[in-house]
Amino acid sequence: MAPKYKLSYFDMRARGEPTRMLFAAAGIEFEDDRIPFDKWPSLKGTTPMGQLPVLEVDGVKLCQSMPIARFVARETGMAGKTNLEQAQADAFVDELIEMLPKLYGVAFATDEAKKAEMAAEFDKTMSSKLERCEKLSGSNGFLVGNSLLCCDLVLHTVAFNIENYKPGTLKGYPKLAKVMASVNANPKIAAWIAKRPDTKF
Amino acid sequence: MAPKYKLSYFDMRARGEPTRMLFAAAGIEFEDDRIPFDKWPSLKGTTPMGQLPVLEVDGVKLCQSMPIARFVARETGMAGKTNLEQAQADAFVDELIEMLPKLYGVAFATDEAKKAEMAAEFDKTMSSKLERCEKLSGSNGFLVGNSLLCCDLVLHTVAFNIENYKPGTLKGYPKLAKVMASVNANPKIAAWIAKRPDTKF
């Protein structure tokens, strides 16, 4: 029997979305358990590492967002075709995902001077990361190899936020823009994006 | 023919050591290329992501420290026996490795007041992370399952620094101390520790 999956995360894309997109791309049913922020303090102690996301697989609780995404990528054949391809995909994930907390830092800063300073620093980080990923990306619509992998969905998640933050940024990175386009063109992903809750992050 | 491995990293343990220990534990030859800090600025541009470590596998350059460690763990059968075990091991790695930059932040702080503040914050983070890992660890000398995995070597690397920073800390976490002891008792690891360069971090 196919395992039963329950992904618990906040009602946002962020660090939970690559896993949701993996399930969607593979056509695998999962319970999309979205924890309201006001319920979190009372639930925190019940999670293995005091953090979300948590993925329950037939009752076993897995934690840490990218280990969860990598697990689901392996389960669904989207980790990479060879060990080497898997390592290359994995390096993109680590490089890209680091942008999220920095971007949220800017978004949630309340002091205007501090916010401007953080934004300038983030813009610099973002450019150098996107440049590196553009240089290393394949040119046929996938970061690595010739099929949709977890890293493409991490790029999509991060770039979705970047495009909200500075519309048009991806145009400067044609290979990455092509990856975004090929993710969006995947019918199962497109159906997921159309039905997923519309959240700010 | 067995692949040829060259690991380029600074002359420190830090984010390169789990990979070196994986090679040592598996009895696999690798070139331990240690880049002097003064040579780094001229080499930075030649690395795929402008960072070290880089692992060359038969000429292919892999980057990002934990993706490299996970790759070598898969090559050497130390990633986890099942996909689920691999995810559990992986979560320990992510939880533990985050301590290193924070610990180095304290070590390299020059302003005394700032250093004390950072140390207090680090101590809190360290306790909560070690508590969580202690709770989730297996009790037979391995974090997960019943054999040496990549996560045990990451714990060893992190705990080695912690013991230098606050000797005796691990005594408060008996299951983690037992993992340290079983890593140290591995003859191939012991031989590696005896011969590796003695660096501060």
UniProtKB/TrEMBL annotation, chains A, B:
Q: Where is the GST C-terminal domain?
A: 82-201
Q: Which SUPFAM superfamilies match?
A: GST C-terminal domain-like, Thioredoxin-like
At the top of the EC hierarchy, this enzyme's class is transferase
Which residue ranges does the record assign to the GST N-terminal domain? 3-80
Could you tell me what reaction this enzyme catalyses?
RX + glutathione = an S-substituted glutathione + a halide anion + H(+)
The domain of life is: Eukaryota
Q: Say yes or no: keyword Nucleotide-binding present.
A: no
- Molecular function via GO: glutathione transferase activity
Q: Which InterPro entries does the entry mention?
A: Glutathione-S-Trfase_C-like, Glutathione-S-Trfase_C_sf, Glutathione_S-Trfase, Glutathione_S-Trfase_N, GST_C, GST_superfamily, Thioredoxin-like_sf
Annotated EC: 2.5.1.18
Record-level GO BP terms = glutathione metabolic process
How far does the signal peptide extend, from start to end residue? Answer: none
Pfam families on file: GST_C_3, GST_N
For this UniProt record, the keywords arranged alphabetically read as follows:
Transferase
Q: What is this protein called?
A: glutathione transferase
UniProt organism field: Branchiostoma belcheri
Taxonomically, what lineage is the organism? Eukaryota, Metazoa, Chordata, Cephalochordata, Leptocardii
